[in-house]
Predict the structure.
Amino acid sequence: MIKSIHQEWELRQMQQLPLDAKIEMSKQRIKEWYEAFDGRCYVSFSGGKDSTALLHLVRSVYPDVPAVFVDTGLEYPEIREFVKKQSNVTWIRPKMNFRQVVLKYGYPITTKETARKIKYARKGREWALKYVDGTAADKNRKPSRFRVANRWLKLIDAPFLVSSDCCDVMKKSPARKYQRKTGRMPFTGTLACESQLRKQAWMRTGCNGFAAKNPTSQPMAFWTENDVLAYLVDNDIEICPVYGRIVKAGKTEADERPETPKYELTGVTRTGCMYCGFGCHLEKEPNRFQRMKETHPKLYEYCMRPVGQGGLGLDAVLSFADIKH
């Protein structure tokens, strides 16, 4: 296990820096990664706002770095059209589609970490069962705060499988295949503020994970969501129209720092995989599925339709998990 090289307070301190300082720090990390691999790098490009900012940032330093888009079939139609407009992008695809993945491995519901524990608890793995019954302990032998929340315990007996394998099969596996074939190493637009897992990953390896099991550069990891929007506005960068427009938000604490106004999107706030249930329970209404019902009714009908009728069966999954849709 890799020992953490950063503390949480360091991340908080870096997140408070002005955007100009963050940009220069990120460019330095980009140069370090690029030089370490003699330029054999690529930008992992999803078509989302974060990777759009990343692509611009990387190419502001090294214009010829290629981008790679994993065409999972789960992206918004607008995302796919947006990616087609970008230059020097290689499209790669997974071996399995989403329907095959969820039927074989399980649905992505709640969070990645909880889904993983549910999966292995159902298989009877002792380490996972401890997080379900509350007997898991931390290094000080105190009850672990990472136990499965009561709300999700019923997933142990759900009439469908639950797992966190979808991302590995549909995104990471084809990306690793591309890396083995080309020898290129990735830049990703991952932000530590997005989840506990991503924050922990940054604490273990920093922005340039040379020592990680799967070495990856995350040069913008210490940016905030607002930093990304501000960078896009400041550089007049086009984003996928599914996001709507970037507009200034109402009065917030950010107003005390006029050099970085607070921004928000008028459309969807996340693009990712359209049918993914991870984090949906944390979203304000309308959540991603409620919004999809209005904006992409045919895709909504397909993903909610029962598996036996050729759909993805998400209506049954979300209903069982008490997630509005």
About this structure: DSSP finds 13 helices and eight strands in the chain. Residues 279-325 form one domain. The mean pLDDT is 92. The first strand starts at residue 41 and ends at 44.
